[in-house]
Amino acid sequence: MILYSDLAYDSRVRREATSLVREGHRVVLVCLEGTEGTPDLPPGVEVIVRRPSVTTVLPGTRVGRPDRANGRLSRGVRQARWLIAYVRNLRSWGRLAIDACGQVDVWHAHDLPALVAIAPVLSSRTPVVYDSHELYLEAGSAALLPGIVRLLLRGYERRLVARVAAVVTVNESIAQVLRHRYRPRRVVVVHNAPERWDPPAERPQQLRNALGLTASVPIVLYHGSLSSSRGLRELAEAMLTGGLEAVHLAYLGFGGMTQELIRLSGEPRFGGRIHVLPAVSAEDLPEWVASADLCVMPIQASTLNHRLSTPNKLFESLASGTPVVVSDFPEMRPIVLGDLDGPLGETCSPSDPLSIGEAISRVLDLSPDAYADLRRRCLKAAHERWNWETESERLLGLYADLPDADAPTRSVVFPDPSQCDRG
């Protein structure tokens, strides 16, 4: 398995590695970082850290700002230089990963950078599984590249996908885009839902204890990456909607917008009702989420990747029995409003703070009995449908069907995604 980022921040990779080991495979996992602070992985998962040093451009390194005097030309030159430096480091890292692992039966590449790193230099006899966590060329730094560059990279991705045995991705809408663009041999959808979790008998109080609030104060939570396109400013503005004067909002996480949100929380118009809290460990997260009254994720429709997303925090909220307000997007809407037992929350227009605020009010204004029933539906949906135990069966079925599935020793190497988005 190869992952071009920090293993500690990628729950999907850890879950997949764990499931494959429990099925009887041996997993060698190559990443940029991850041995320190990473939740324990089971015996049978070997973590190898390799960091390239050909250039200084690594995942998370931003494209330099152009000089205003030079405008578009300067921006294009800087972007080209950044991309060349990124690819040089990536190719170097791929060779380091292959040398570190030696002979393996299958390579499992997480996201496009990992596929680019290893696919061109591997023997065609070695199966490769491409795990596309998102539409990579329409997310993160890749989305900032000029359109012509992304078009060329899409053509290159098509060539690489033609070489892989199967593509794994996170939801059916993204799977349809990948089928249309690249015509892969096989596509398997594995939603990134957490394991089933049983809340304690008494509702957790982590958020209220951290904020010094009483049980009667409603708390809205956003957890995950504090970055642009997540609707974090719009969510803050939504707290000014009439009827939400007593509601508090907590941002729980880390990212490039942390300081901006801290400054925003100090503005007098919010009356001290907005709070920014540091991220908590993966092991502690379920109880923190369960201590909220509502989780809100107003992801913006800034890219196709965002519009088709099913963020981790959606499934984490349901697993904790916490209702949600989500952007009214093609993949999230049917999960939240189309559940077999009834709605699991509300949808909103994510660019409109009033729409977000009204959706929050519709949940928080429910009677105590209706709200308790809503929480029960969320937990039931997670236990019966949206959980890793169910989703991982498709991953294991894929590996059972690979050409070398019956070999006595079945080693899986997972490549690292070049960028880990904590959404």
Would you mind describing this structure in some detail?
With 423 residues, the chain is an alpha/beta fold. The chain has two domains: 2-193 and 388-414, Rossmann fold (3-Layer(aba) Sandwich), CATH 3.40.50.2000; 206-384, Glycogen Phosphorylase B (Rossmann fold, 3-Layer(aba) Sandwich), CATH 3.40.50. 39% of the residues lie in helices and 16% in strands. It has 15 helices and 14 strands. Strands 1, 2, 3, 4, 5, 6, 7 and 14 form an eight-stranded parallel sheet that branches. Strands 10-9-8-11-12-13 form a six-stranded parallel sheet, sandwiched between helices. The longest helix has 31 residues, at 71-101. It is globular and about 60 Å long.
* Residue share in helix: 25-40%
- How many DSSP-defined strands? 14
- Return Rg in Å: 22 Å
**SSE string, helix = H, strand = E?**
EHEEHEHEHEHEHEHEHEHEHHEHEHHHE
How much of the sequence lies in strands comes to: 15-25%
Distance between the termini: 22 Å
Query: At the first level of CATH, what is the class of the largest domain?
Result: Alpha Beta
Mean pLDDT across every amino acid position = 90
The CATH architecture of the largest domain can be named as 3-Layer(aba) Sandwich
- How many domains in all? 2
Largest sheet: 8 strands, parallel
Helix count? 15
What form results from the Cα inertia axes?
Answer: globular
CATH topological fold name of the largest domain: Rossmann fold
Structural class: alpha/beta
CATH homology-level superfamily of the largest domain: Glycogen Phosphorylase B
Low-confidence segments, given as residue ranges, are 405-411, 416-423
